[in-house]
């Protein structure tokens, strides 16, 4: 490896490490802010578990590629992503009482004070405060 490539790789590693650290701290602060006091420990533990799963993902995908080939890995990952998207869509479908399945809510984060959004009872209870 050429010396200039090592410097570039070192600089990239530093920048990516800083970005990861900022994202982790920001995510943990957001999770702590949004979680109920009785659920805070479980939410933080879940954040850490997902972070470590994210660390392992490149190695798992590489291993899958070695076992199934590039096309097989692509098909498997596409199926996993589609399944997760479908599961999320089913779990997050609008469940609010109201004529249109929407509710006016006040966001706890930055944004417009009142926004009409489709809501799910659990999401509404945890992430927004009803007016």
Descriptive report:
With 131 residues, the protein is mostly helical. The protein has a domain at 94-131. The chain is built from three helices and three strands. The protein has helices at residues 3-34, 40-91, 121-127, and strands spanning 102-107, 115-118, 128-130. A three-stranded antiparallel sheet has the order 2-1-3. Helix 1 (3-34) packs across helix 2. The longest helix is centred in the middle third of the chain and has 52 residues, at 40-91. It starts with a helix and ends with a strand.
Beta-strand fraction estimate: 5-15%
In total, the number of strands is 3
Q: How is the largest sheet built, in terms of strand order?
A: 2-1-3
Tally of alpha and pi helices: 3
Q: List low-confidence stretches.
A: 110-117, 122-131
Shape: flat
Report how far apart the termini are.
60 Å
Q: Mean pLDDT, as a whole number? A: 78
Gyration radius, rounded:
20 Å
Q: Which quaternary structure do these chains form? A: single chain
Helix content: 55-70%
Helix/strand/pairing category? mainly alpha
